[in-house]
């Protein structure tokens, strides 16, 4: 893992800089999932783990929400998750935990779960699936994954 340069004005001898170097801390941003107007990275890597931001069913080129059904939106959200994990150096086989927010959990859980089982390899990682009000889309998910050992 490449060492992380100290932030502007920070010395390599600061506790934060030493922690970042020791844990391999880095932020991941990839053009493969589009750009964001909000202030966040697509993932953080630290201590051999990858923590993703929320994956939503948006078109990477336009930012527009894609898919009418929960199945379509789940497929796209998981495809974007795969891209972020790849940019961080891992994949869905190394998932440790997934958190899923569904806008209408009663109507959408079965369709979501069908696609999830198709796209995420067994054994399936621990998962929390909860109902949440989402602004204009039906699903958002985050994940924690391990980096593969060399």
TrEMBL record:
GO cellular component: cytosol
GO molecular function, one term: deaminase activity
Top-rank taxon: Bacteria
InterPro entries the record matches: RutC-like_sf (IPR035959), YjgF/YER057c/UK114 (IPR006175)
PANTHER family reported in the protein's UniProt record: 2-IMINOBUTANOATE/2-IMINOPROPANOATE DEAMINASE RIDA, PROTEIN HMF1-RELATED
UniProt similarity note: Belongs to the RutC family.
Designated name of the protein: RidA family protein
Organism listed in the record: Pseudoclavibacter caeni
């Amino acid at each position: 893992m490449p060492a992380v340069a100290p932030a502007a004005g920070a010395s390599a001898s600061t506790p934060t800089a030493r922690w970042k170097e020791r844990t391999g801390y880095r932020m991941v941003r990839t053009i493969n999932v589009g750009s964001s107007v909000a202030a966040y990275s697509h993932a953080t890597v630290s201590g051999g783990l990858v923590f993703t931001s929320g994956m939503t069913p948006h078109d990477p080129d336009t930012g527009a929400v894609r898919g009418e059904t929960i199945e379509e939106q789940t497929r796209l959200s998981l495809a974007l998750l795969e891209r972020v994990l790849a940019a961080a150096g891992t994949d869905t086989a190394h998932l440790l935990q997934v958190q899923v927010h569904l806008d209408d959990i009663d109507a959408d859980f079965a369709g979501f779960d069908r696609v999830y089982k198709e796209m995420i390899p067994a054994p399936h990682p621990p998962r929390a699936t909860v109902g949440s009000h989402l602004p204009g889309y039906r699903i958002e998910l985050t994940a924690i994954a391990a980096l593969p050992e060399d």
